[in-house]
Amino acid sequence: MAKADTPVSISNADLSEDRFSRFGLIDWWDQSKLRSAKILVVGAGAIGNEILKNLALLGIGHVIVIDLDSIEVSNLSRSVLFRPSDVGRQKADVAAERTRDLYPECKVKAISGNVMHDLGLGVFGWADVILGALDNREARLWINRAAWKMNRPWIDGAIEGINGVARVFLPGKPPCYECTLGEVDWKILDRRMSCKLLTREEMEGGKTPTTPTTSSVIAGIQVQEAVKFLHGLPVLAGKGFVFEGMNHTSYVVEYTPHDECMSHEVYDHTTSWPKPSNKTTIAELHAFAQKELAAADVSLDFSRDVIQSLKCPKCGLSRDVYACAGTVTVDQGKCSVDGEAMEVAAIHGFGGNEPYGNRTVTDMGLPPYDVFVARSREREMRILMDADRATVLAGLDSN
């Protein structure tokens, strides 16, 4: 046996190794595909932490992580990236910092916000793969529709207790997430939102029981499917990997397409608009669409519903809102005079004569880097607010 002070010999093979050299021993592996990859991670909780950890260890080059919550003490038992000193900070900010700590070459952008209200469709189009790490059906449904529209794959992960499932959905190739929803799912979705498009606050505080072990299993499958997709290998398209933790039984389920599914819309092309959202009025976009479509009868559809105003049916008090549907709570929608539930006026687009034409996209409550759909009787077009790109994707490569 060598003495303690005997010099250790380092072979040429050891000297030639780099951070990812062991991955290269896999015959189909191409590290350059991961280095150039762009990943959108929605959710920075238990699953999101594991996803981000895996992306960093694999050498993914560009990541956006969005989450609206702040770190609580209970997160510390399930989130590998969080520390006790982080309690009270935004999950997205801390998760991005720790991802960079693991792999400094990774360009990570944190967005503290709600994926349904604060993220323009252009961000979905930026991503090569979208990874979902959420705990509610409403957000999953929104991601599903946004991913399909922007022709991007998304990989969903869900856990409860010591069980979980990872599912892969490819645009243009049903089934999609909405196809998997059953009667019970739709009842839960209906309860999430009132008939007046106001969010029920009591529904937002729901807690899902989870463990770090199950999170790591499901997130591992999600990221592995993403790696396979980036390499052009077969993935669990329209299928789900189900993990049952009590007996460690795992199996794959295959979902059935739904012929009348509302999510099956793919934007095959977008036209770029050269001005940012805060300097572009709705009327300007409408006039541009009229010119491009060579038609006067053009409707301009928003990417999501907007609450225009609230009015009390009892005393007549009204106020303008201009905010995405779902951002106003039931309590905020009560009349300040008599406490009556106010009636909601929601808008979905612009036909050319509505009084809000002179409001900017930002003033309408719509997020930057979004997409509008303009339709005439014969044709339609999609308009991307591309001038917002530099701001929204600041810190990430432009390509």
3D architecture notes:
The protein is globular. The longest helix is centred in the middle third of the chain and has 19 residues, at 212-230. The strands form 2 sheets. It has an 8-stranded mixed beta sheet, sandwiched between helices. Strands 9, 10, 11, 12, 13 and 14 form a 6-stranded mixed beta sheet that branches. It contains 11 helices and 14 strands. The protein starts with 11 loop residues before the first helix and ends in a 7-residue tail after the last helix. With 399 residues, the chain is an alpha/beta fold. 41% of the residues are buried.
Uncertain regions: pLDDT < 50 for 5+ in a row? 1-13, 202-206
Strand content: 15-25%
Counted by DSSP, the helix tally is: 11
Helix content: 25-40%
Average of pLDDT: 91
State the distance separating the first and last CA atoms. 55 Å
How many beta strands in the DSSP annotation? 14
Largest pleated sheet: 8 strands, mixed
Secondary-structure content class: alpha/beta
Shape: globular
What order do the SSEs take from the amino end to the carboxyl end, as H and E? HHEHEHEHEHEEHHHEEEHEEEEEH
Rg calc: 23 Å
Question: What is the topology, as strand order, of the major beta sheet?
Answer: 3-2-1-4-5-6-7-8
What secondary-structure arrangement, pairings included, does this model have?
Elements (H helix, E strand, L loop, with lengths): L11 H5 L14 H5 L2 E5 L3 H13 L3 E6 L23 H12 L4 E6 L8 H6 L2 E4 L4 H13 L4 E7 L2 E7 L13 H10 L8 H4 L7 H19 L8 E6 L4 E6 L16 E2 L9 H12 L5 E13 L6 E7 L18 E8 L20 E5 L4 E5 L4 H4 L7
How would you sum up this structure in a few lines?
With 399 residues, the protein is an alpha/beta fold.
